[in-house]
Structures are given as structure tokens and as C-alpha cells.
Design a protein that fits this description.
There is one protein chain. By secondary structure, the chain is an alpha/beta fold. The chain has 6 helices and 3 strands. The chain has a 3-stranded parallel sheet.
Length: 157
């Protein structure tokens, strides 16, 4: 899928394929990929920071300028805990719902975060508590996990 290919609205499979392609190739259109920016950054963080930079605002204020009906496509469910000390991606998403603006209302997810990363991820529950839907887009789990777990070791007790 090239950048010039038009994707029909609500074609979740095509958007997830595009997100996966970006993760595989470190090729970015208007989103982000893990470690794209300095500071042990996750894809959602990079995406929001790049959007903020393009708008000339701070990342914590992106919700003020996001269009209505904004959704986020991510290969892996947003994190709820960051071992690096960075603000978790779930909190960044929730923070877009500020100043009476709807912010990000739906997150389309290719795979749940493996527990070997930081333990049980309660991100979906926290998103739901703040009115953000988390919607799985099945069919990409093996490909996503192959990329996402590269360099991560299994935790054995």
C-alpha cells in the first residue's frame, strides 16, 4: 500500500495494514512509530508530538486542535505504565479530551500488549472509563508481535 492509495472510510483492515507497514519500514505518513523521536518514545507519543509540532503547540494541548471524530490506529494497545518514566500513552490519549473538545474517541488496536513488557495492561479499561472506545482489528497479531517483541526477552519466574 503506497501513500497515494486512497483508503475508504471505516476500512479498518486497510488502516491497520498501513500502520503495520509503517512499523515494519519505519516509514511515517502522519503517524509515528516507536523510538522515532528521542527519549524512549512509543508510537502514540511520537504521533501526538509530531502533530503538535505541525500545529505549533505543545503536545499536551493537541486535543484543542484535533478534528472532531478523531480516531487512532495503533498496532499495539496503548500502554498504561511506562518503565521509562514517560507519560503512558493511555494518559496521552485521555488528555486529548480537554477544553470541551471530544479528542480521540476511538482507538483501533491490532494486538494486546504482551504481559512480558510491563505486566498486565489495564489501558483498555482506563480508556473506557474516560469514554474512549478500544476496538480490536483482528488478523495482524502474528505480524505485529514479531515486530513488537524483537529485542524483548521473555520474563521467566
Amino acid at each position: 500500500m503506497s501513500t497515494s492509495d486512497a483508503i475508504a472510510p471505516f476500512n479498518h483492515q486497510a488502516y491497520m495494514r498501513l500502520a503495520l507497514q509503517q512499523a515494519e519500514n519505519n516509514y511515517v505518513l502522519a503517524t509515528g512509530y516507536t523510538l522515532e523521536l528521542p527519549g524512549n518514545t512509543h508510537a502514540e507519543q511520537c504521533c501526538l508530538q509530531k502533530y503538535a509540532d505541525a500545529q505549533g503547540i505543545k503536545e499536551e494541548h493537541v486535543g484543542q486542535s484535533l478534528p472532531d471524530q478523531t480516531v487512532l490506529y495503533t498496532t499495539m494497545e496503548p500502554c498504561n505504565l511506562r518503565a521509562s518514566g514517560n507519560l503512558p500513552c493511555v494518559d496521552r490519549i485521555i488528555r486529548t479530551k480537554t477544553s470541551g473538545k471530544p479528542g480521540i474517541q476511538r482507538v483501533y488496536v491490532g494486538v494486546k500488549e504482551p504481559e512480558t513488557f510491563v505486566g498486565e495492561n489495564r489501558g483498555r479499561a482506563k480508556l473506557a472509563e474516560h469514554g474512549v472506545e478500544s476496538i480490536p482489528v483482528p488478523g495482524f497479531e502474528d505480524e505485529i508481535l514479531k515486530i513488537a517483541t524483537a529485542g524483548h526477552q521473555e520474563v521467566h519466574e
